[in-house]
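Handout, tutorial session.
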Amino acid sequence: MELPTAYLRGLHDVNREVFSARPDAPVVPEPPRREPRLRRSLSRVIYKVSVAVAPAGYRPEAITR
């Protein structure tokens, strides 16, 4: 019988918290979360489309540059 993924993930998180409280635990910061390349490229395409369909004299505010 397979354990549900949520249970295993919770068990992993609890173990990590418990082991991080040990005096000899290594201090390793979590890597910064990077924005997926696909999401960034899609947001740029959507912005360019919004600029193309905007009324004359109005340019949408850029969220990302």
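The second record follows below. Compare its token runs with those of the first.
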Amino acid sequence: MPATARHIAALCLRGLLVSSLFLGPLVAVGIARSEEIKIAKNGAGLVLFVSLQRQSLS
């Protein structure tokens, strides 16, 4: 019984690894092309980002 559970766990981890290798780059491209991130770096979002960065340095 424990050998079967170990085999199933190994199979699930292998499937997770393969799916993450295929889906990871697609998700990264989707995030890079997202309009929400570009909007956040303009105006008030940029001011907030810079002020938080300065605050973390001091």
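Points raised in discussion: The helical segments are 2-32, 35-40, 44-57.
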